[in-house]
Each structure stands twice: as structure tokens, then as C-alpha cells.
Amino acid sequence: MQIDILSLFPEMFAGPLHESMIGNAIEKQVINVDVTNFRDFTTDKHNHVDDYPYGGGAGMLLQPQPIFDALASVQEKHPQPGRVILLDPAGVQFNQHVAEDFAKEEHLTFICGHYEGYDERIRSLVTDEVSLGDYVLTGGELGAMVMIDATVRLLPGVLGNEDSAPGDSFSSGLLEYPQYTRPADFRGMKVPDILLSGDHGKIDDWRLEQALKRTYERRPDMLAGLSLSGKARQMLAEIKADAEQA
Fold first, then answer.
1. CATH code of the domain occupying 2-153
2. C or N: which end of the chain has fewer Cβ atoms within 10 Å?
């Protein structure tokens, strides 16, 4: 996968994108990441990339010319541009399903804004407008890092265990069940007996029940419209009944 990032602060990506799983993905050549400073493309003699909004208002807006020309330069190197993603608070909220959708692409380009916002004409360049959540950051760089991390870890060959990603919270539509490792008894806190039983059928049932219980208690909104098996529906009904009696 080719990942391009347009940013005024390319040095912000040097550390996060070269450590841990993302760094490994680059070393294995699963992905290639290029960061372009779109200030390098401005035609303004003072090197400005922003200006005051027409009609007045607070703050400065990114001008279209530097971003148009920077993206054109990227697309000259990669004729099939794939998805062009604008980091914007007004965009669709990023979640696991969006990450899974991005992971199917061969090329992603992230446009990271700064200052008050964008000249509206910049939106004509993009295929997606995406927000990290209902809050405002200083720029789009941190949001892009999060989206890249969530997407790249889904690519084949990135995680050590190929079963890890499908079992993550949100991938199944449920929060992840509790997990334990050695020792079996730590300061009186014991691993549930079922996990030591070796009965994988019962372990799977316990994990499903625990995932349902945790989701119901912490994120009941996730259960709305979720397609559940008959076994899972029965488990959920019992969890709800127990909660009402508590």
C-alpha cells in the first residue's frame, strides 16, 4: 500500500510512523509512506499558504493553490490516486469499519489541515472527508496518524498473528472479552477456571458471553442493529435479566 500525507509539519510523522507495527510494515515493504510539505508548492513570494476568509471572520484559511499543486505532484508519481482523505471535523466519524474499508485500497492520500480551516474548493479534490471524533485538534496530523495505524494493522503480514485483527474490539461489533496471561494466580486475583480447562468449545462460549456483557455494560449503543446468532441473543437476554435484578 502507498500512503501519501500532505502536511505543513512533516517532521511530526518521523517518530510515530517508524516505530512498532507501522515501522515493521515499512521495513517489510508492506507499505510505503511519503510525506509532502505542501508549503513547498506555494507560489506566494512570502511562502504563505493561508489567507483571511472572504466576508470576514476569525482565523485563516488554507489556500487551494498549494494543496492542488502538491496533490498533482503526488498523482504524477502514482497515476492511480486511490482514496484522497480530507481530515475535517465535519467529516464522517472514523471507526473500525472505515479502517477496514481503507485497508482494501492500494493508495491512500491524507490531507492534513491547519489553522481555521480549508478553502471550500479544496474539497473538490477528495473522495472522503473524515473526522476523528467530536472535538477539534490543532491540525489533522494526529488524526492522520491514528487512521493510518488503525488501517495498516489490518493489512496481511503486519501483525504477527493473523487472527489478532479480526478478534479486536469493534471488528466483531462487540467489545473484546477479558483476557489473561501468566501467572494463573496473581496476588489472589485468579484466572477464571474455564480458561484453564482446555475445553475450547466452552472457552469460546465464555468469551462470547463476556464480550456481550462488556458491550452491554459499557457501550450498549453498539448492540443496536447488530446481527447476533441465536446463542448470542439468548446470552444477551440473560445478561439483561441479571442486570435488571441486580
1. 3.40.1280.10
2. C
Annotated binding site: 113, 132-137
pLDDT tens digits for 51-100? Answer: 999 998 888 999 999 999 999 999 999 988 799 999 998 899 999 999 99
**Helix, strand or coil, per DSSP, at residue 99:** helix
Annotated binding site for S-adenosyl-L-methionine: 113, 132-137
Class of the 172-245 domain?
Answer: mainly alpha
Domain boundaries, the chain: 2-153, 172-245
Enter the pTM of the model.
0.85
Active site residues: 89, 116, 153, 168
Query: What's the rounded mean pLDDT across residues 130-151?
Result: 95
Distance CA 59, CA 57 (A): 7
The answer to whether the beta carbons of residues 32 and 4 sit under 8 Å apart is no
